[in-house]
């Protein structure tokens, strides 16, 4: 799995519900990122965290929340305030030795 | 505004033909440059990257890319495309002073004809 996992692979949500996407890495890296991907578009940054107990908003943070209580875990909550949550969500970590981001397999969220 | 442009939304090539995917960026300084590949429903896989030094970089799966400072470009090439190369390709840049945040192009979808 390249050291980073996301679960579940597919997620269905009813309108008005919050849902949490899991992202875990076992490589002891500090920096982690959440991106949203829509068809025909590149990745857009939702939130990122450079260290435990700290995180910053990215370009499209509205309607999302995160936590970073443990170095290995960076869960993303899609709240009911997110107007168009159906998308593919990708989590990544950054290897500080190479300044390179490596991605998890993604979670496809569909709002019914 | 800082941006990454991939001018070609969709490219179709015949198997065995050569391939070039274009990427241009608009930053004041030279950023770190990356190419990723994504198969449908999958995460992104790193193909190659450029930080400094030799402007022609080799990557996995037979891909290479050339950094041209004068053109603010980082085009991806492959001499002979295989059917398994059909995927979506993303160019990304990182400013080394930007907390490692990446900016991605909108991607180029590659179709390979038999």
- Ends of chain B: how far apart? 41 Å
Return the average pLDDT of chain B rounded to an integer. 93
Order of helices and strands of chain A: EEEEEEEEEEE
Indicate the low-confidence ranges of chain B by residue numbers: none
- Seen as an oligomer or otherwise, the chain set is heterodimer
Number of strands of chain A: 11
- The percentage of residues in β strands of chain A lies in over 45%
Structural classification of chain B: mainly beta
C-alpha termini separation of chain A: 30 Å
Largest sheet of chain A: 7 strands, mixed
Q: Give helix % range of chain B.
A: under 10%
**Overall 3D form of chain B:** globular
Count of helical stretches of chain A = 0
Compute the gyration radius of chain B: what is it? Answer: 14 Å
What's the total number of strands of chain B?
12
How many H/I helices of chain B? 0
Short description:
The complex is a heterodimer of chains A (112) and B (114). Chain A is an all-beta fold.
Question: What does this protein structure show overall?
Answer:
The complex is a heterodimer of chains A (112) and B (114). Chain A is mostly beta strands. Chain A is built from no helices and eleven strands. Chain A is globular, with a radius of gyration of 13 Å. Chain A starts with a strand and ends with a strand. Chain B is mostly beta strands and 114 residues long. In chain B, the strands form three sheets. In chain B, strands 2, 5, 6, 10, 11 and 12 form a six-stranded mixed β-sheet that branches. Chain B has a four-stranded antiparallel β-sheet with strand order 3-9-8-7, with no helix packed on it. Chain B has a two-stranded antiparallel sheet with strand order 1-4. The radius of gyration of chain B is 14 Å and the shape is globular. The relative contact order of chain B is 0.33. The mean pLDDT of chain B is 93. Chains A and B meet through strand 5, strand 9 and strand 10 of A and strand 5, strand 6 and strand 10 of B.
């Amino acid at each position: 799995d390249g050291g980073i996992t996301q679960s579940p692979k597919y997620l269905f949500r009813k309108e008005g519900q919050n849902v949490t996407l899991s992202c875990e890495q076992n490589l002891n890296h500090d920096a982690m990122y959440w991106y949203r991907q829509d068809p025909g578009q590149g990745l857009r940054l939702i939130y990122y965290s450079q260290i435990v107990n700290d995180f910053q908003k990215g370009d499209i943070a509205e309607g999302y929340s995160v936590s970073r209580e443990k170095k290995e875990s960076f869960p993303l909550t899609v709240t009911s305030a997110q107007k168009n949550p159906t998308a593919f969500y990708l989590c990544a970590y950054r290897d500080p030795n190479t300044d390179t981001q490596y991605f998890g397999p993604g979670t496809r969220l569909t709002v019914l | 505004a800082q941006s990454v442009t991939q001018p070609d939304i969709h490219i179709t090539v015949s198997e065995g033909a050569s391939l070039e995917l274009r990427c241009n960026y608009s930053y004041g300084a030279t950023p770190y440059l990356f190419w990723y590949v994504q198969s449908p429903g999958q995460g992104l896989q790193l193909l190659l990257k450029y930080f400094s030094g030799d402007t022609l970089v080799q990557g996995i799966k037979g891909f290479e890319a050339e950094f041209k400072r004068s053109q603010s470009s980082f085009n991806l090439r492959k001499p002979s495309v295989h059917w398994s190369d059909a995927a979506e390709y993303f160019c990304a840049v990182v400013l080394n002073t930007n907390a490692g945040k990446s900016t991605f192009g909108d991607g180029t979808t590659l179709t390979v004809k038999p």
